[in-house]
Amino acid sequence: xxxxxxxxxxxxxxxxxxxxxxxxxxxxxxxxxxxxxxxxxxxxxxxxxxxxxxxxxxxxxxxxxxxxxxxxxxxxxxxxxxxxxxxxxxxxxxxxxxxxxxxxxxxxx
Amino acid sequence: xxxxxxxxxxxxxxxxxxxxxxxxxxxxxxxxxxxxxxxxxxxxxxxxxxxxxxxxxxxxxxxxxxxxxxxxxxxxxxxxxxxxxxxxxxxxxxxxxxxxxxxxxxxxxxxxxxxxxxxxxxxxxxxxxxxxxxxxxxxxxxxxxxxxxxxxxxxxxxxxxxx
Lengths: 109, 163
Known about the structure:
The structure holds two protein chains of two kinds. Chain A has a single domain (2-103), classed as Helix Hairpins (Orthogonal Bundle). Helices cover 77% and strands 0% of the residues of chain A. Chain A is built from four helices and no strands. The longest helix of chain A has 31 residues, at 66-96. Chain A is elongated. Chain B has two domains: 1-106, Four Helix Bundle (Hemerythrin (Met), subunit A), CATH 1.20.120.1200; 121-163. Helices cover 74% and strands 0% of the residues of chain B. Chain B starts with a helix and ends with a helix. The model of chain B has no long low-confidence stretch (mean pLDDT 86). Classes of the chains: A mainly alpha, B mainly alpha. Chains A and B meet through helix 1, helix 2, helix 3 and helix 4 of A and helix 1, helix 2, helix 3, helix 4 and helix 5 of B.
């Protein structure tokens, strides 16, 4: 275990910051890019995971376990949100008969 | 060790781009599963072992399987989903790229952070996280059970045919 802990000092923290920013912007690009509702939910999961990775990296660098506990709670909330979101998708398919997100435009002006 | 970091992040970024740009929804799910496995590798690299295992069990094992079930239930691989207009897609890519550059420029001042505190050797194991979870974060832990019950009730209510 001590070898793994001392190896973290070899990887500078900005690598994790850049990686997390890249994943977040790719996820955001996917939400704007896709028209399938399930694919939009998947790109949302990508954004959640980039934040999880950044929190864990900072928590490891400061030896503070609060960051990892917070990641645990983010996973809990993401699981509940995916369950409710997918049931909304099933209801959408039942009503409009498509998962195209451009068909849900009744609240637009 | 840094080679392992670059290898895992290359896998993760390629699979994330494949999630965005692929057409078949089942291919999307498979690429996202590979991306999550690479992220579990990153967690192990950071000595967050509890989070790596919980990540594989909860995210890859439960949430992605739920996605696959819903995709197969709705029979989506036979439907033809039109794509958004070219202007929207190009502007989405440009927006993503500009957002990436803006965030990168905003965090450039923080690139001199070095590890300041000595590492505890039992950091990230189940016992350390369990101690913090049940002493300092007890109230959010109990509240999450209420969150789960409400999410379950909500999901069941949406699934009924005659609301």
